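Sanity check record (used in CI):
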Amino acid sequence: MEQEQRLGILGGMGPQATQVFYQRILDKTDASRDQEHVPTLIWSDTGMPDRTRAILSGETEPVFARLLSGARLLEREGCTVLAIPCNTSHFFADRLQAGLRIRLLNMVRLSAAAMAARGCRRVGILATDGTVRTGIYQRECAGQGVEAVVPGPQAQALTMSIIYDEIKRGESGSREKFAAIDRDLRSQGCDGAILACTELSVYKEYHGVSELYLDAMDVLAEESIRACGYPLRSV
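Expected output for Aspartate racemase:
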């Protein structure tokens, strides 16, 4: 008998982003009844150490060990595809994949490819300091022939403020701050930009964003559905 495809979501980074990600899975699946949705197991590990703090301090091993433990838990419970709706954690993606038998969907790699498919040549990356410092988006974009740029220091500080001071604290995020970030990216000649933090995906839920932006969470949600063999909703 063919194995049932089952999506594992390793979340809790943060919890609201995990909830929004699962809702995106539901919204984007072409289903008219319960049985047509993707079987999914969610482990929201809210005790995961902060990824940005770990990367900036160099104390990354506790984060990796906990990510691997959570991923293996989902693997043991029969998940066939793994999604991690946290961009910064993808610093560990290739190393995690090496320790798993199931496929880990690489949100960063998929998003860079999606921007190249759009025909973008200079792409802004809105992300945590940790994600920016690792260079994971810069490398994946370069591999697609796309130049990745980051906000200037003031705009990057505003990005971190929206993520940590607002969304992670249950607020909706400042439109004024986001507008200043948007101006910074456009002044740098960006013809596209990636919401490369799932807290910014939550921001988009509240306020919406212009067509300049690709939401990495959307990319991951759609690939999660396809990877499990389910159809995407077309309208």
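The radius of gyration is 17 Å. If this sentence no longer matches the regenerated tokens, the check is flagged for review.
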